[in-house]
Amino acid sequence: MSDTQQEPWTVMRLLEWTTGFFKRKGSDSPRLDAEVLLAHARGCERIELYTAFGEEPDDEQRVAFREMVRRRGEGTPVAQLVGYREFYSMKFRVNEHVLIPRPETEHLVIEALDVANASEIKDRPLQIADIGTGSGVIAVTLAKHLPEAELVAVDQSEHALEIAKWNADKHEVSDRIAFQQSDLLSAVESPKQFDVICTNPPYVTDAEYEDLSPSVKDFEPKEALVSGPNGAEIIERIIEESEERLAEGGRLIIELSPMIADACQAIAKQADFVESRFIKDLQGHRRILSLRK
Prior knowledge:
By secondary structure, this protein is α/β, with parallel strands linked by helices.
């Protein structure tokens, strides 16, 4: 993006140049990346760029944009550059201490909302747990859409919990979410049982981790990604704990890798669940395991 070019650097030209640059760098969404970064540099919504293609960003905006483009080209995730990620039509703050929310996790939220809305419990608040809350996207989204529910969100990382609490405050649901530092539910004393337990746990194998793209491996917390040699170690622990911590008729909803779907189903068959079903993602892969006690 040389300043010596005679042709003006309009919004359109910046987007076209940057899209091509990100393509060469291997981005999966080069145009989207370019738009999100330029909108952030200009302090506007991404949709506003479409009515400003002929405008020339000022020097300050161009300097900020150029620096973000450079860092994105080096692998830094867009969400970390702008400080947020959109999830379920809500904006969530993220940083290097939490996983960047993926679209696949929205399938888990939809399943949890369906379960909650179909619940026959009307005489008390629905009790929901979110294990490994990270940035808090699951707990906060559920709290936002289930105004009568009470939630407990746990994570081992104190830094992650700080981000999750910020997001809960931002979306005005912090009064109904109890955040707690805990290894799974081991430190959670109340409530004794939950109606719904949700989790997007680490499920990457040690071998898979070595093959992850640098934009994931170098910028997101390893402890939130890697489960162990077979990928199902933490999920197995969650299933075991949930046998005691789920109320009768309660549901455990787990996001997992399609690669370990069969292994997780086999683990679930050994546990005290009366119903087991998979929910597929948009690519047709088994992504969510929903278990009823």
